[in-house]
Amino acid sequence: MATTHAVAAARSIASSLGLPSQDAIILQESNRITLRLLPCDVVARVSPAEDLVAQFEIELAQRLTAAGSPVAVLDPRVQPRPYEQDGYTVTLWSHYEPSTRTITPGDYAATLLRLHAGMRDLRTPTPHFTDRVEQAQRLVADRDRTPDLVDADRELLDSTLRRLRHAVAGRDRAEQILHGEPHPGNLLPTRTGPLFIDLETCCRGPVEFDLAHAPEEVAGHYPGLDHDLLRDCRTLTLAMATTWRWDRDDRLPEGRRLGAEWLSQIRTRG
Predict the structure, then answer these.
(1) pLDDT tens-digit map of 94-124
(2) If you placed Cys at 212, which of 63, 130, 237, 259 could pair as Cys (CB 3.0 to 4.6 Å)?
(3) What's this model's pTM, rounded to 2 decimal places?
(4) CB burial readout 82-93, b (16+ within 10 A) else e
């Protein structure tokens, strides 16, 4: 995805909706680009038009907002829907001024508990976490999309993903809708309290799959966890995240360096 063209599409769409956007600040750049448009102060999430999760993310955010769940809301000044232009899909979200208060492990766990409580009552069709693991497995197997992954590391990722996918899915553990990637980068410290963003990764599975993305000390504040299952989920999600970093199209800054570092961690865990 060409950053310049993606930014231009977002600015054009916002302006056409009466939201002045003379400037754009890139907040995140990976499989999607997240921008803060100024002076209208709206957050634009831009993805290729063939990415079909934008409507799903909007509907899920609306349901969770109505339930009082701790999630970022869509910008109320425009109709809540995906907007398309020049091969890009853009969704528009509210901008939150950051809080200076640190999110403690207890705050993190309490916010995730509230999110899980709201998600538990949803009847929205979502992928299973094993579907997301299979996406990673297909990427590992595709040498054209992961050309820099050497054979030994490719085998390590494939065997880790395969083994732990079956180990986690085979546990007798209740499942529900999850955020999918509630890591610190997806938790905003706002003045009204922490809010989760980026709902495109929602899937169904055990809550330990979500806790695996949070800092380790958060688990001590989240009741009722299966810590053996959590340990397996930590390695599984690390293998998935490592796989995304070796995608030739990955745009995360320092992504390849992180991928190499995480491969070493997976190898150490055995």
Answers:
(1) 999 999 899 999 999 999 999 999 999 898 8
(2) 237
(3) 0.93
(4) bbebeebbbbbb
